[in-house]
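Recap from last week: sequence in, structure out.
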Amino acid sequence: MDRDQENIQAIIRSLELDSLKQSNEHVPQEEVKRHLNVVFIGHVDAGKSTTSGQILFLGGQVDDRTIQKYEKEAKDRSCENWYMAYIMDTNEEERAKGKTVEVGRAQFETESTRFTILDAPGHKDYVPEMISGASQADIGDLVISARKGEFETGFEKGGQTREHVQLAKTLGVAKLFVVVNKMDDPTVKWSKERYDEIVAKMIPFLRSSGYNINRDVQFLPLSGLAGTNMKTRVDKSTCPWWNSRCLFEALDSVEVPLRNPNGPVRMPIIDKSKDMGTVIMGKIECGTIREGDKLLVMPNNAHVNVIAIYCDENKVRHSGPGENVRIRLTGIEVEDILSGFVLSSVVNPVASMTEFNAQLQIIGLPDKALFSAGYKSKLHIHSVVDDCEIVALERIDPRTHLPIRGQAHFAKNGDVVRCRIQVSNMICVERFSDFPQLGRFTLRDSGKTIAVGKVTGLQI
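Predicted structure tokens:
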């Protein structure tokens, strides 16, 4: 990075801190930290929940007595190595099955950064839940098992490593840490050859998925179960060939994405509850929300008042983009809110519709299927999941970006198309060029991702 770029980044960081300070005036200046959302993704059994749990333990969020309780519980289930995962996998189904089935959420801090951890499920049956987690993230930790056979199972056709990477990129996870886990396994024993083999196989795929390897991706080896190379660098006696950062240092090095605290409010709602009124939960994508604000819940055009805002369990007066918050509202009942609704500015409300124009890339159609007008699938866009149908399409030449004339109006794997999409219910979307997090989406069919796309036009 040259001197001019360094100066620009320093100015951006200063402006972001100033904005955060102004929006939380009651917080002492020395306590204001930048905030990042990190999602843990990867194939089932790669060690995502264990690694997440270890981060919380090393970050001081879990005490020794709790760890001892989890160790005993795991041992009683004859699953001694699962105890760290119990920190994130809190419900009985997850502990009984030994796999994450919903997005776990927790917070930890380093000296300079507050992190929200999103622990996404790895099993193919829970990809919609993984999409929900990744759609809220700024950066991703792709956890890969170094154990012989496990990496291959996750990376080969049918494994979730590839789909998770493609989904993460589509959902706006711009920076990716590729965490090569279980390096202490007896089949690996911190082998540089095994680590290099995994990196060499991952790089071409990551590049083909749209990641710039030098700018967007960092690889590092660790043991999530033992906590090695996580908060402190791995000892040379354990891994003499590793000369770079540990996980906490790598996370701290990430630049905060550009955010707009002064834009129109956009907060997709991911959950709701009744707690002395109506409470909604979500990540603020744009704008700043303040106590006393009058806003809209869309698409039902409900006028609401903001009574209270909670960030990391703390009551705050203001909160800005990038923050995961709970907001207590008046003017609407819990039963009148669905996941996928959006809290929005009154003056500049989010768009609501049942049809929109889009550009798609077809990546994984079912065998012998053709993509054409009439094709039906599931649409995933921010926190919305809805049935959809392609009502018109034209193929695009990827070199000229112009329609291909004189050919049948259908597409196959690898094709790029422009199309019009119709959904079953009124949903909130925006042009990708205006609000990327509300304008990028995936289509899924038969349990797999078939296309990734962006909204290019609104049918208002």
